[in-house]
Amino acid sequence: MNSNAEKYSIIIKAKAKKFGFQDCGISKAGFLENDAVALENWLKNDYHGKMSYMENHFDKRLDPTLLVEGSKYVISLSYNYFPEEKLPTINTFKISKYAYGEDYHEIIKEIMQEMVAELKDEIGDFQCRVFTDSAPILERSWARKSGIGWVGKNANLITKQSGSFYFLAEIICDLDLQEDHATTDHCGTCTKCIEACPTDAIVSDKIIDGSKCISYATIELKDEIPAGFTDKMEDWMFGCDICQDVCPWNRFSSPHQQEKFKPNSILKNYKKEDWKELTQELFSEIFRISPLKRTKFAGLERNIEFLSK
């Protein structure tokens, strides 16, 4: 091992903490052999629904050295988004907690770029790329491999200390670093997430039929929502938190400290009748820098109409 590997790894983890990341783990870049079979089977079963992009870049998804030339290690990071106060759920349509505030892609990427700039000042120049839910990377697999948490029955990454309400991000770099190791699974015999899913999207331990998932139906799907979702969506108009809300480990979630993740006042006060009268102009004003812009106005309108039947 490079004599600087341990030193650099310590510096990186301290820097991650300074920049507000909840956890940081390091794993050696290479081919994710165990995940290859699982991904292939998942695609063969059409669990990706109409997310055809999941079929693309199969090799890159499994091997970051193909994505970032010369890369040696994957630095996995987690960033808390658990809110201090939850949005109302009575007489309104629900929004997943990760979408309460501004778009996390931009915020976390900016934080990582600042962090990398400081790292280069401290340890010298190195080649890297930063990602957060923005490239063909099996983020949970790398985070699991680096010891941040384990993959729960609901396929979310879970930690004992803080549950699962956090974003994952990666710095893929050519530094020689000290590798961390995977943690153990602590779901045990608990099946709360499987039992709570109203659409039976969790088909077995750690395997999700994406085409049955409420998040898929309200965000990823561009066509009409299938009739099979009727009376099963429990008023979720963007995303769904059910399988996380019932997870016992999320009793350890603590509120985030990121001002930009706080919801705007409109989201706190809107009732069902207000949402039904949403216009393109108002949508653009409210969600200009929000994850909800992904559905576009037509998508959110479709979701509201489906829930209002």
**How many helix segments?**
13
Low-confidence stretches: none
Q: What is the N-to-C succession of helices and strands? A: HEHHHEEHEHEEEHEEHEHHHHH
Helix content range: 25-40%
Structural class: alpha+beta
Total domain modules:
2
Strand order of the largest sheet: 1-2-7-4
Please compute the radius of gyration using only Cα atoms: 20 Å
Outline, from the CA principal axes? globular
Oligomeric state as shown:
single chain
Average pLDDT score:
95
State the major sheet: 4 strands, antiparallel
Strand content: 5-15%
Count of individual beta strands: 10
How far the N terminus sits from the C terminus, by CA atoms, comes to 62 Å
Describe the model.
It holds the Pfam family QueG_DUF1730. The protein is 35% helix and 13% strand. It has 309 residues and is α+β, with helices and mostly antiparallel strands. It folds into two domains: 5-88 and 97-173, no CATH class; 192-307, no CATH class. The strands form four sheets. Strands 1-2-7-4 form a four-stranded antiparallel sheet, sandwiched between helices. It has a two-stranded parallel sheet with strand order 3-10. A two-stranded antiparallel ribbon has the order 5-6. Strand 8 and strand 9 (207-208) form a beta hairpin. Helix 1 packs across helix 5 (104-123). The longest helix has 20 residues, at 104-123. The mean pLDDT is 95.
